[in-house]
Write a structure and sequence with these properties.
The protein is built from seven helices and six strands. It has 215 residues and is of the alpha/beta class. It has a single domain, classed as Rossmann fold (3-Layer(aba) Sandwich). The protein is globular.
């Protein structure tokens, strides 16, 4: 029986953010997977990309597919760049390049670990959330640094990508500024299920998917 493993952070481990009685991402995914399929949640709210190998200690023997959504907390951990003193635009870009390089190295090492398991793997970008308009644009620019690292790392390894910026693109997708609601979770689960059903993992090629309709 196929078993889809969800790795990463609170994008998947969102049960504490949805109202009682509303389903989290893993329950929504189980409900729409083909008959005989299962989904297992190993993602942990608050985890960084570097924590994913620890999650693999609980990898079930029947795991058949891996889906990773990590990096959001790495981005949150670098919000200090907004207040970093800079004399020129070049100073800012040097700082962003340093942050990106450090994240790229960490994230790439995680992908190498997952690729080594020889299971079909899908990764997700970091969505932009439902932030206050006063910070949403600079936050989106800063997140682009992390998302570029994610997409490049995936492309270098032939891994398909779900662009959560396009999947969760409405305010009702969020339970708070940065966590997925049941609506957002449903869109995430539907996109995962669609990618698993349609992507040719044997070709080892990267496709960026933008929503449940795979457009």
């Amino acid at each position: 029986m196929p078993n889809v493993i969800l790795l990463g952070d609170s994008i998947f481990d969102n049960a504490s953010y949805v109202p009682p009685g509303e389903p989290d991402v893993v329950r929504q995914l189980r409900a729409i997977l083909p008959a005989g399929w299962d989904a297992t949640l190993l993602a942990v709210d608050g985890n960084y990309a570097a924590d994913v190998p620890t999650q693999l200690r609980k990898l079930p023997r029947d795991a058949t597919h891996l889906v990773l959504s990590a990096g959001g907390n790495d981005a949150l951990g670098n919000t200090g760049i907004f207040d970093h003193p800079a004399r020129t635009g070049m100073d800012i870009f040097r700082l962003m390049a340093k942050v990106q390089r450090e994240f790229r190295d960490t994230y790439g090492a995680v992908l190498d670990r997952l690729v080594g398991l020889r299971l079909p793997l899908v990764v997700c970008t970091i969505y932009e959330g439902d932030l206050d308009p006063t910070i949403s644009q600079p936050a989106a620019a800063a997140l682009a640094v992390f998302n570029d690292a994610i997409i490049r790392a995936a492309a270098e390894r032939g891994i398909p990508v779900i662009d959560l910026r396009a999947v969760c693109n409405q305010p009702d997708c969020y339970a708070n500024p940065i966590e997925p609601s049941a609506v957002g979770g449903a869109r995430i689960a539907a996109t995962i299920a669609a990618v698993l059903a349609s992507h040719d993992f044997n070709r080892r090629h990267t496709v960026v998917y933008a929503g449940p309709n795979l457009a």
